[in-house]
Design brief:
2 domains; four-stranded antiparallel beta sheet; Immunoglobulin-like; about 150 residues
Length: about 150
Amino acid sequence: MKKIIYIMLLLSVTFSKAQNNKITFDYDAAGNQIKRDLCLNCTNANYKTTNSKEVTALKEEDLQKFFPEDVISYYPNPVKEELYLKWELIEGNLVTSIQVYGLSGQLLKSYSGLEKNNAQNIPFQTYPSGTYLIVLSYTYGEQKNIKIIKQ
Protein backbone atom coordinates (compact mmCIF):
# COMPACT_ATOMS: atom_id res chain seq x y z
CA MET A 1 0.00 0.00 0.00
CA LYS A 2 2.83 2.38 0.85
CA LYS A 3 4.48 1.66 -2.49
CA ILE A 4 1.29 2.51 -4.37
CA ILE A 5 0.89 5.81 -2.52
CA TYR A 6 4.55 6.63 -3.14
CA ILE A 7 4.23 5.84 -6.87
CA MET A 8 1.05 7.94 -7.14
CA LEU A 9 2.74 10.84 -5.39
CA LEU A 10 5.77 10.56 -7.64
CA LEU A 11 3.59 10.48 -10.77
CA SER A 12 1.52 13.47 -9.67
CA VAL A 13 4.67 15.52 -9.03
CA THR A 14 6.16 14.45 -12.34
CA PHE A 15 3.10 15.29 -14.43
CA SER A 16 2.01 18.44 -12.62
CA LYS A 17 3.09 21.65 -14.20
CA ALA A 18 3.98 24.65 -12.04
CA GLN A 19 2.64 28.02 -13.07
CA ASN A 20 5.26 30.26 -14.53
CA ASN A 21 3.81 33.77 -14.23
CA LYS A 22 5.88 36.92 -14.10
CA ILE A 23 5.07 40.56 -13.32
CA THR A 24 7.65 43.22 -14.09
CA PHE A 25 7.61 46.94 -13.44
CA ASP A 26 9.62 49.77 -15.01
CA TYR A 27 10.27 53.06 -13.25
CA ASP A 28 11.51 56.45 -14.42
CA ALA A 29 14.39 58.32 -12.76
CA ALA A 30 12.06 59.89 -10.17
CA GLY A 31 10.79 56.49 -9.01
CA ASN A 32 7.41 56.72 -10.72
CA GLN A 33 6.03 53.55 -12.25
CA ILE A 34 5.85 53.93 -16.01
CA LYS A 35 5.17 50.37 -17.17
CA ARG A 36 3.62 47.19 -15.76
CA ASP A 37 3.98 43.88 -17.65
CA LEU A 38 2.18 40.64 -16.87
CA CYS A 39 3.43 37.46 -18.50
CA LEU A 40 1.39 34.29 -18.12
CA ASN A 41 3.05 30.90 -18.55
CA CYS A 42 6.41 32.39 -19.57
CA THR A 43 9.77 30.79 -19.72
CA ASN A 44 13.07 32.63 -19.73
CA ALA A 45 13.50 31.97 -23.45
CA ASN A 46 9.91 32.81 -24.33
CA TYR A 47 8.92 36.03 -22.54
CA LYS A 48 5.64 37.33 -23.90
CA THR A 49 3.82 40.38 -22.59
CA THR A 50 0.09 39.78 -22.37
CA ASN A 51 -0.96 42.84 -20.37
CA SER A 52 0.73 46.21 -20.25
CA LYS A 53 -0.29 49.41 -18.51
CA GLU A 54 1.47 52.69 -19.14
CA VAL A 55 1.35 55.09 -16.21
CA THR A 56 1.47 58.66 -17.45
CA ALA A 57 -0.12 60.52 -14.53
CA LEU A 58 -1.30 59.65 -11.04
CA LYS A 59 -4.93 58.57 -11.16
CA GLU A 60 -7.32 57.57 -8.39
CA GLU A 61 -7.18 53.88 -9.42
CA ASP A 62 -3.35 53.91 -9.10
CA LEU A 63 -3.55 54.73 -5.40
CA GLN A 64 -3.33 51.74 -3.08
CA LYS A 65 -5.97 51.72 -0.38
CA PHE A 66 -4.60 51.68 3.16
CA PHE A 67 -7.45 49.48 4.43
CA PRO A 68 -10.68 48.75 2.52
CA GLU A 69 -12.77 50.64 5.09
CA ASP A 70 -10.40 53.63 5.17
CA VAL A 71 -10.15 56.61 2.90
CA ILE A 72 -6.35 56.74 3.03
CA SER A 73 -4.33 56.00 -0.09
CA TYR A 74 -0.61 55.95 -0.84
CA TYR A 75 1.56 55.74 -3.96
CA PRO A 76 4.04 54.27 -4.99
CA ASN A 77 5.15 51.27 -3.00
CA PRO A 78 8.00 50.45 -3.45
CA VAL A 79 9.15 54.06 -3.46
CA LYS A 80 12.35 55.52 -4.92
CA GLU A 81 12.10 59.28 -4.45
CA GLU A 82 8.86 60.41 -2.79
CA LEU A 83 5.80 58.81 -1.18
CA TYR A 84 2.42 60.44 -1.79
CA LEU A 85 -0.22 60.03 0.96
CA LYS A 86 -3.83 61.19 0.54
CA TRP A 87 -6.79 60.95 2.92
CA GLU A 88 -10.31 62.26 3.30
CA LEU A 89 -11.42 64.23 6.35
CA ILE A 90 -14.40 62.33 7.77
CA GLU A 91 -16.49 62.73 10.93
CA GLY A 92 -13.94 64.79 12.82
CA ASN A 93 -11.42 61.92 13.05
CA LEU A 94 -8.60 63.72 11.27
CA VAL A 95 -4.98 62.80 10.67
CA THR A 96 -3.04 64.90 13.18
CA SER A 97 0.51 63.66 12.62
CA ILE A 98 2.64 61.31 10.55
CA GLN A 99 5.87 59.68 11.72
CA VAL A 100 8.44 57.86 9.58
CA TYR A 101 10.34 55.08 11.37
CA GLY A 102 13.23 52.92 10.24
CA LEU A 103 12.92 49.19 10.69
CA SER A 104 15.07 49.42 13.83
CA GLY A 105 12.39 51.64 15.43
CA GLN A 106 14.31 54.91 15.11
CA LEU A 107 12.12 57.96 14.38
CA LEU A 108 13.44 59.50 11.15
CA LYS A 109 10.92 62.26 10.44
CA SER A 110 7.74 63.62 12.00
CA TYR A 111 5.02 65.75 10.41
CA SER A 112 2.48 67.46 12.69
CA GLY A 113 -0.32 70.01 12.38
CA LEU A 114 -1.99 68.13 9.54
CA GLU A 115 -5.59 68.65 10.68
CA LYS A 116 -6.38 71.02 7.78
CA ASN A 117 -4.51 68.97 5.15
CA ASN A 118 -5.71 65.99 3.17
CA ALA A 119 -2.39 64.97 1.58
CA GLN A 120 1.31 64.80 2.40
CA ASN A 121 4.40 64.09 0.30
CA ILE A 122 7.20 62.34 2.17
CA PRO A 123 10.66 62.51 0.55
CA PHE A 124 12.65 59.26 0.61
CA GLN A 125 15.68 60.38 -1.45
CA THR A 126 18.04 60.59 1.53
CA TYR A 127 17.02 57.25 3.08
CA PRO A 128 18.89 54.06 2.21
CA SER A 129 17.11 51.11 0.60
CA GLY A 130 15.07 49.08 3.05
CA THR A 131 11.76 48.84 4.85
CA TYR A 132 10.15 51.78 6.64
CA LEU A 133 7.07 52.22 8.79
CA ILE A 134 4.70 55.16 8.34
CA VAL A 135 2.51 55.78 11.40
CA LEU A 136 -0.59 57.96 11.02
CA SER A 137 -2.08 59.36 14.24
CA TYR A 138 -5.72 60.43 14.38
CA THR A 139 -7.62 62.98 16.44
CA TYR A 140 -9.31 60.30 18.57
CA GLY A 141 -5.97 58.68 19.50
CA GLU A 142 -6.07 55.83 16.98
CA GLN A 143 -2.91 54.96 15.02
CA LYS A 144 -2.48 53.04 11.78
CA ASN A 145 0.72 51.77 10.17
CA ILE A 146 1.86 51.41 6.56
CA LYS A 147 4.92 49.35 5.62
CA ILE A 148 6.85 51.05 2.80
CA ILE A 149 9.76 49.62 0.84
CA LYS A 150 12.46 52.01 -0.41
CA GLN A 151 14.38 50.83 -3.50
